[in-house]
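By convention, each integer encodes one residue's backbone shape. The lines below illustrate.
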Amino acid sequence: MTDWWWIRHGPTHAKCMVGWVDIKADLSDKITLNKLDEYLPDDANVISSDLSRAIETANAIQKSRKRLTNAFNLREFNFGYWMAKIGNIFLTPTQSFPGLIGQTPVILRLLMEKVGINLVIE
């Protein structure tokens, strides 16, 4: 039997759906990374998508574990037109828009509510 431990990459602090946009992860929370390292088996293989946030996170938890080749097919969902955008506005990881929900197009609101996409909105 094979056991899998699915680890999400470190936070990006992006205020949008990131998808395939290559944004770096914030791996400054060393306490959480150390707890994760203690939890994972020493003989676990480590693999990630080819996006930098996933690679950085995998490297941070690798330690003496075997590192497998990064895999394009492990990328998260591709949001197409909506990646890193709200309407026609490109968002950088440090931008936020007060009252964004009231300005959100109907299709994005449906995606958030019906599919369960969780956006951080300030």
Notes: The chain has one domain: 30-115. The first strand starts at residue 85 and ends at 86. Confidence is low (pLDDT under 50) at residues 87-103. Helices lie at 30-39, 52-62, 100-103, 106-115.
